[in-house]
Write a structure and sequence with these properties.
The protein is elongated, with a radius of gyration of 16 Å. The protein has helices at residues 29-37, 58-74, 93-99, and strands at residues 2-8, 14-20, 41-51, 78-82. A 4-stranded mixed beta sheet has the order 1-2-3-4. It is 31% helix and 28% strand.
């Protein structure tokens, strides 16, 4: 199963949210087999900015939450797996606020 959603901000930024049960190799096959045997399906989540460089709005974050909540309603025995990509960071207002007070690793 693979589902892809295109989300848009008020400023015109575009994000791609993807859910997939395809095995990417990030989690060992024997672990996935054990979870599947117990009725648990692992869904990997991918999030990428496709267009724009604006701060990610609360509205976009809410859209992402709604998509994840809908998936979990439809698949009650799901375990979500997400790997963060630090190469393409999604800026947020909170991060900018914290950068003035806390050193940010580079």
């Amino acid at each position: 199963m693979t589902e892809v959603y295109s989300l848009h901000s008020e400023q015109g930024d575009e994000y791609k949210l993807q859910f997939t049960t395809e095995r990417s190799g990030m989690i060992a096959d024997d672990i996935l087999d054990q979870l599947n045997a117990q009725g648990i399906e692992v869904v990997e989540i991918g999030l990428a900015r496709v267009k724009g460089h604006n701060v990610t709005s609360h509205k976009v974050l809410h859209q992402i939450e709604e998509c994840i909540a809908d998936l979990m309603r439809r698949m009650p025995n799901v375990m979500l797996s997400y790997f963060c990509d630090f190469i393409h960071l999604v800026p947020s207002p909170k991060k900018r606020e914290l950068q003035g007070r806390v050193p940010v690793p580079r």
